[in-house]
Amino acid sequence: MGCPKPHKKNTMSHQKPTSGFATKCIHAGQEPDSVTGAVTTPISLATTFAQKSPGVHTGFEYSRTGNPTRNVFEACVAALENAKYGMAFASGLAATATIMNMFNHGDHFITMDDVYGGTNRYFSRVSKPAMNMDYSFVDLTDPAKFEAAITPKTKMVWLETPTNPTLKIADIAAISAIAHKHNLLVIVDNTFASPVFQTPLDYGADAVIHSVTKYLNGHSDVVMGIVLTSHEAFYTKLKFLQNAMGAIPAPFDCYMALRGVKTLNLRMRQHESNATAVATFLEKHHLVEKVIYPGLPSHPQHEIAKKQMKGFGGMITFFLKGGLTESRAFLENLHLFTLAESLGAVESLAEHPAIMTHASVPTEQRKALGISDNLIRLSVGVEDLADIMEDLTNALNAAGKVHSN
Predict the structure, then answer these.
(1) DSSP strand pairing (134-138 vs 108-112)
(2) Largest pairwise CA distance in the chain
(3) DSSP letter, residue 130
(4) DSSP 81
(5) Which of 171, 189, 206, 391 does the annotation list as catalytic?
């Protein structure tokens, strides 16, 4: 399949323009059940649907192609991203793989240099050898570097902003303008910001991708991905592949994620409030070498973040003074924070990217990106701030004892 042309003007969601964001979280795409009047969207487990005559049906034929519960979830998140269409997948990487099947052998793509480790692995170790696709990993915080990397074979730019784990911010509008000048598609992974704080389609992106597993669901109990777009040609091709490849989520997971989205606005506000306090605390701590948080004036792209984000999220990256020994001491002495991969849930999580989420990234690439042994990533939850601070203080004290020896 050839790639669709970039979409240069966003089409707003079917939702009324006056609908507030929190209202959309609760009501978008959802109506009381037409048969029972149930207020909560039913879980439709049916795999097949009755037809009145061959080819005459109610809009549903087979659950891989379309499912009532999945449709509601897709419509809800599309409204949150100011998109016309939503397509849900079994995971974020399933969504990524399906998108890449829209393109041809030999095509070239540009992506952020510190893109999520799983995305890096899929690009470098799956689609590159299997589909002869070529990737350039570029620091997209500099639009000039992006334009310099474009070749006659380039078809798309894949942005993460903020990035995982170094929280770089790319100027979506600037990158999109350059991309469209060269007839390239723009895909933005909006997982870290969520639509509460950032809506990339409004800045010129052609499509948005989320790991629903993270903030959208928010409760560490669903693995899912979703793609949102108002680009008609992109939607048509991806919708065909969603059905043809079949990497779809279960109806129960769609129900769970839809329930999670209802509190998205509330959760994200608390995540940000707690994270801002934690980042400020860490930046002043004598055992911390450096803190990276888009909401801090010290962040290199703070002004760009203020321009395109309505808030700065719940993710913090910081560097301890010392190395792996200090990092282990810190992580092993956390008790409220859970040492675990993933992010974006109500509970606070901490991890060591070099060993955990980004271990699949080649060592030399990790070093170049600054993903070092003293780098810690925090997903700040919605617990009481005093409890979060106490836990971090105790863990830092433990790391300090190791550091002083």
Answers:
(1) parallel
(2) 79
(3) H
(4) T
(5) 189
Q: What is the pLDDT along the chain (405 residues), one digit of tens a residue?
A: 556 777 654 434 444 444 899 999 999 999 998 889 999 999 999 999 999 999 999 999 999 999 999 999 999 999 999 999 999 999 999 999 999 999 999 999 999 999 998 999 999 999 999 999 999 999 999 999 999 999 999 999 999 999 999 999 999 999 999 999 999 999 999 999 999 999 999 999 999 999 999 999 999 999 999 999 999 999 999 999 999 999 999 999 999 999 999 999 999 999 999 999 999 999 999 999 999 999 999 999 999 999 999 999 999 999 999 999 999 999 999 999 999 999 999 999 999 988 886 777 777 777 777 888 899 999 999 999 999 999 999 999 999 999 877
Q: Phi and psi for 244 in degrees, rounded to 5? A: -70, -35
> Of 24, 84, 168, 214, which one is the catalytic site residue?
214
DSSP 188-244: EE-TTTHHHH--GGGGT-SEEEEETTTTTT-SS----EEEEE--HHHHHHHHHHHHH
Tell me if residue 214 is catalytic. Answer: yes
Distance of CA 38 to the CA centre of its chain: 31
Distances (CA, A) of 299 to 130, 264, 319: 38, 25, 14
Cα–Cα distance measured from residue 23 to residue 397, given in angstroms and rounded to the nearest whole number: 43
Provide the residue count of the chain: 405
Active site residue 116: yes
